[in-house]
Design a protein that fits this description.
InterPro entries: YeaO-like (IPR052552). By secondary structure, this protein is α/β, with parallel strands linked by helices. Helix content is about 40%, strand content about 15%.
Length: about 120
Amino acid sequence: MEIRIKRVYESPATNDGYRVLVDRVWPRGRTKEEVQADRWLKTLAPSTRLRKWFNHDSDKWEAFKHHYFEELRGQQDAIEQLTQEAGQGPITLLYSARDTEHNQAVALREYLTREFIENH
């Protein structure tokens, strides 16, 4: 499974594959037509409490991932659904954060890659 990440403010591409928005809140200033997400999985976004605590502080990145992965372990149905619906093609995780290195899509890709490799 190929998992890509992309900001929702970037133009959709034909090779994005299955596009999944993984923000808890709809991206500011974007319409559904602009985002072109195949699915909006709010349940795979970090909890509001965790998101506010992290506040995209790179010093908290490792702790954020640890807590976020714990939250994701409770969302196995959504994760299974995501991987099944995506089929064999690429998945593009869409996010709206400005920080391209420290955001939930980067962490989720790491989590999905680990889980998929370990379980398949």
